[in-house]
Amino acid sequence: MREIFGGFGYLLRGVGLLLRRPRLFVLGALPAVFVWLVFLGIFVALLVNIEELVGWATPFASDWDEVWQTVVRGAVTLAVLLGALLLFVVSFTTVTLAVGSPVYDKIAELVENELGGAPEEADDPLLASVTRSVRQTAGIVLVSLTVTVTVFALGLVPFVGWMVAPVLAAVVGGWLLGIELVANAFDRRGLFRVKDRRRYMATRRLRVLGFAVPTYFLLAVPFLAVVVFPAAAAGATVLARDLLPAAPPEADSS
């Protein structure tokens, strides 16, 4: 329990660090606002054009009886809208972190400098950095979608599924979020691979989940996420600094 509550303390510490710099706190909230508005605009556009889109996707139903045509196209419409919502929910955090990368890098740098002992940034060519970031982001979104669909299917199982599915979603979702949030501190130290982050995080698994799971739930609330994002970026930097010395000596740092 001490490890779990200690993990949540990183988020509170992140809030404290940024409250002393309200301008940076507001700046850190802007990427979440921007991504939320873009997603909302895309969804509204999808709603406005859904009838034409479904008609284009189901030309085979044009000559069907009106009742069956309505049933099939209604089902396709519902599937498209639910699929879009699922994609938005799963990718919101990852896309926000990618869009706000310069801002969250600045927050991480501020935390590193305030705590002292900040390493020099690793030499990382821009093209290699962007390519790696896109690849890792796509991978995490794909894993998140797979987990979400699996959890949904598991939740359909009576009794056992209703208890296991929410716990599995929280733990796996929180763990994936932790992998994303600590990326800046690890990259700064030349640890560029997701495998490196997982290995270091595994040394204090309960502490990581104590930070990442509550953050995962808070970021799932659209308006609250705007406030939580900058605090989570600061807290994750402190967490990463505490994790790194505990890593196995054979950890690959290249």
Description:
- The protein is an all-alpha fold and 254 residues long.
- The protein is 81% helix and 0% strand.
- The chain is built from 10 helices and no strands.
- It has helices at 2-19, 22-57, 66-99, 101-115, 126-155, 160-181, 183-188, 194-201, 205-219, 222-243.
- α2 (22-57) crosses α10 (222-243).
- The protein is elongated, with a radius of gyration of 21 Å.
- The model is unreliable at 246-254 (pLDDT under 50).
Structural class by SSE content: mainly alpha
Name the assembly state: single chain
Question: Total strand count, please?
Answer: 0
Helix content: over 70%
- What's the number of helices? 10
Order of helices and strands: HHHHHHHHHH
Q: Unreliable stretches, pLDDT < 50, 5 or more residues?
A: 246-254
Give the end-to-end Cα distance, rounded to a whole number of Å. 34 Å
Main sheet attributes: strand count, strand direction, barrel closure = none
Radius of gyration: 21 Å
Overall, the morphology is: elongated
Average predicted confidence as pLDDT: 83
Which percent range describes the beta-strand content? under 5%
